[in-house]
Amino acid sequence: xEQSTTFTxxxxxPFWVGIAERWDESGYQAAQVVFGAEPTDAQIWxxxxxxxxxxxxxxxxxxNHPAAGRKNPKRLQREARAAxxxxxxxxxxxxxxxxxxxxxxxxxxxxxxxxxxxxxEQKFLLKQRxxxxxxxxx
Length: 138
Prior knowledge:
Layout: E1 4-12, E2 15-24, E3 27-36, H1 41-51, H2 73-84, H3 91-136
């Protein structure tokens, strides 16, 4: 299976957002980047050249890749016109991004819990050390 990638820039109030979607042998993945102000074509190309490898894609989802057969030119023209109309990003991308946000939130929560546990243990050990020093008369 060949790999294909699309990058869509759209406006989601109040920011301009780029949605990257890719299909490969492992499945469908999506990533999102927030641009802020409306980026120019040159800024988008520069960003793609410098920052593309830093994108954090969602875990692969096994979804059928769209067929890559030859299409009628008139149909392609209609599809291109429909794609330029502001309809937003595919729901598949939104679902993949929401799954990615959930996984990131779970990882952050686990890390925060571990950090709290370590701080609690440090506090306990400090209290024990002070208790021993007080008892020994130092």
